[in-house]
Specification:
The structure holds two protein chains of two kinds.
Chain A lengths: L4 E3 L2 E4 L5 E6 L6 E8 L3 E9 L2 E5 L6 E5 L5 E5 L8 E8 L11 E2 L3 E5 L1
Parallel strand pairs in A: 2-11
Antiparallel strand pairs in A: 1-3, 3-8, 4-5, 4-9, 5-6, 7-8, 9-10, 9-11
Chain B lengths: L2 E5 L2 E5 L4 E8 L3 E9 L6 E6 L5 E4 L2 E5 L3 E6 L8 E9 L7 E2 L3 E6 L1
Parallel strand pairs in B: 2-11
Antiparallel strand pairs in B: 1-3, 3-8, 4-5, 4-9, 6-7, 7-8, 9-10, 9-11
The chains are: A mainly beta, B mainly beta.
Chain lengths: 116, 111
């Protein structure tokens, strides 16, 4: 079974631009979560989507948004990029919504975003 | 606020030298504690979920244990391929809470 895929793998953007990252979950998985990983802060939760609905959102500004499609694929968007947004953005999928038995998350390889 | 602290930050072992990684947590009612392994340039790889104090799980040279305040990841006779960053995360019982991750322990196993 194919794992979680993320595109693109690497991205370089300029301050003020916006970016869209894509995530395809494992086949059959309906929950998709997004995380930001930086050396200083570690892995921080951005949001979770289940059945096209955002269930939870982490402590990030409104510039960070996401959505999920009917086929469970998800996108996240960051508008008005800042230097501090440079990070590895990880997508994780799970079979069911977080908080229920069997909600182990499987991560993709990430998208490395560099903002200059 | 839920918190996870992992120690040590970095650990260097000789091949075959067993050791343990620590994950201390503060959470308002633990639903689950998760261990992941992350190799450079890759996403975290799921290892274990522990749900209650006293629970233990094993996989090859790794064994995870859980108490009411901390979890240990024991590595027995490690090999160089065990070198990675090991991440611990907790999930609270209340509501649809997300995982809260520690900053990880970077393990290097030298042949």
């Amino acid at each position: 079974k194919a794992g979680v895929t993320q595109t693109p793998r690497y991205l370089i953007k300029t301050r003020g631009q916006q970016v869209t990252l894509s995530c395809s979950p494992i086949s059959g998985h309906r929950s998709v979560s997004w995380y930001q990983q930086t050396p200083g802060q570690g892995l921080q939760f951005l949001f979770e989507y289940f059945s096209e609905t955002q269930r939870n959102k982490g402590n990030f500004p409104g510039r960070f948004s996401g959505r999920q499609f009917s086929n469970s694929r998800s996108e996240m968007n960051v508008s008005t990029l800042e230097l501090g947004d440079s990070a590895l953005y990880l997508c994780a999928s799970s079979l069911i919504k977080l908080g229920l038995a069997g909600d182990e998350q499987y991560f993709g390889p990430g998208t490395r975003l560099t903002v200059t | 606020e839920d918190q996870v602290t992992q120690s040590p930050e970095a650990l260097r072992l000789q091949e075959g030298e067993s050791s343990s990684l620590n994950c201390s947590y503060t959470v308002s009612g633990l639903r689950g504690l998760f261990w992941y392994r992350q190799d450079p340039g890759k996403g975290p790889e799921f290892l274990f979920t522990l749900y209650s104090a006293g629970e233990e799980k094993e996989k090859e040279r790794l064994k995870a244990t859980l108490t009411k305040k901390e979890s240990f990841l024991h590595i027995t006779a490690p090999k160089p391929e065990d070198s990675a960053t090991y991440l611990c995360a907790v999930q609270a019982r209340s509501g649809n809470t997300p995982l809260v991750f520690g900053k990880g322990t970077r393990l290097s196993v030298i042949a």
